[in-house]
Design goal:
Elements: E1 3-8, H1 15-28, E2 33-41, H2 50-58, E3 62-69, H3 75-82, H4 89-100, E4 105-109, H5 125-132, E5 135-140, H6 146-159, E6 164-172, H7 178-191, E7 195-200, H8 208-218, H9 229-238
Parallel strand pairs: 1-4, 1-5, 2-3, 2-4, 5-6, 6-7
């Protein structure tokens, strides 16, 4: 588990919070953790980006950002509009390998989904994961529509020779509806991989100590957590 590629079924699904949660648990176990954000979009030069949230929530882990583009677009489109250079998979892989050489765990957080373009040649996070031989974690939404998006992501990953280690629900609502509860059983089927965690909505506002405790409760023992999917599914189903 030395390198994990964190991808989402779309934007705003809780990918950064999931990345921070995994980083927090690993760091709490004494591991040397690095988080790589190849491309940060939609954030100005002096504004805090996703890595600032990771540091705030997970503590003093190593972070590295390779490009920053001000427009909230795909990295390729944002680079084109700003006139800045794009990123290549080889550059991202080299940075990840460099970090991995000095850390026990390196997390690579993509922008949006697995096939969002980094450059005009169509390079994507899938190419990065393949070049590194890294496992893929899919961060998915809880509710209606998530099964199709998760299945598409997993199918693309598998066809490109990648291994999906599991799926995490990045933002579990306080009052889940029938679709969300049903999806707890169906998401692992869609992903072809186990449910490795369910993180509560609003977790990003927690203090560091509370964040670590809730991350531990919401993530699988595979990450050093205590999450039991069968118990969670049973509890959620009993409330409907």
């Amino acid at each position: 588990m030395s390198m994990l590629v964190m991808t989402g079924t779309g934007t705003g699904v809780g990918k950064t919070i999931s990345t921070a949660a995994i980083a927090a648990l690993a760091a709490g176990q004494g591991q040397r953790v690095a988080v790589l954000k190849p491309a940060q979009t939609g954030v100005g030069p002096d504004e805090p980006g996703d890595l600032a949230d990771v540091l705030r929530l997970a503590g003093p882990v190593t972070t590295r950002e390779l490009r920053r583009y001000p427009d909230p677009l795909s990295p390729e489109a944002a680079a084109r509009l700003s006139g800045q250079p794009t990123l290549s998979p080889s550059e991202i892989a080299a940075a990840a390998s460099d970090l991995n050489g000095e850390h026990d765990l390196t997390l690579i957080e993509g922008a949006g989904g697995l096939l969002v373009r980094f450059d005009a040649d169509g390079a994507t996070l899938a190419d990065v994961a393949w070049s590194l031989g890294a496992l893929v974690i899919i961060v998915a939404e809880a509710g209606l529509g998530t099964l199709n998006a998760t299945a598409l992501t997993a199918e693309v990953a598998t066809r490109r020779g990648l291994t999906v280690a599991g799926v995490i629900i990045g933002s579990w609502p306080d009052e889940p509806d029938l679709a969300a509860v049903s999806n707890l059983r169906d998401l692992p089927v869609a992903a072809g991989a186990p449910l490795l965690g369910v993180l509560p909505a609003g977790l990003g506002t927690a203090g560091r100590e509370e964040f670590a405790a809730r991350a531990r409760a919401g993530l699988s023992p595979w990450f050093g957590g205590e999450f039991d999917p069968e118990c969670f599914v049973g509890s959620a189903s009993a409330q409907k």
